Amino acid sequence: MITTWISDEELEAYTTVEDHDLHVLLTDARKVTGDRLFIQTDTIQVKQGWFRPPVMKPLYTLYWRMRAGDSEVSIVNFYGDGSSIRTSVPKEIAVNYLFGLLTGRMSIFNKGNLNNQGEISHE
Question: What's the burial of 39, exposed, middle or buried (CB within 10 Å: 0-12/13-18/19+)?
């Protein structure tokens, strides 16, 4: 797990994403995680070959706040080819991560292990 410190102003900027679909998922995920999830958007230039112009593509870095009100965050790691670890991923991977988070939370709620405040009960 990679941890870092990010200012509150930067974290506030990471609560919104320009991509509408990803923004909706992020908003829903932040509701069930207690506002501890953040997404940073970076744009990279990808070469398309000799005779085609390069294309700008967004990459997303996901952060989890370690404790409420703290500036310490954990960078979500994604495994790539072989043994490589990536921290910035394309939209498809970020969307799948958020879907997994939301469906897992719904599964716990449907089984009756989640109370109305979103906390897991261990009864």
Answer: buried
70-73 CB contacts, 8 Å cutoff, 24+ apart: 71/5, 71/6, 71/7, 71/8, 71/11, 72/3, 72/4, 72/5, 73/3, 73/4, 73/5, 73/6, 73/11, 73/38
Average pLDDT over residues 86-112: 82
Residue 123 lies in a domain: no
Q: Is 72 helix (H, G, I), strand (E, B) or coil?
A: strand
Which residue range forms the structural domain that includes residue 84?
A: 2-110
pTM for the whole thing? 0.79
Total domains in the chain come to 1
- In angstroms, the CA 52 to CA 21 distance is 29
Residue 29 structure tokens:
């995920």
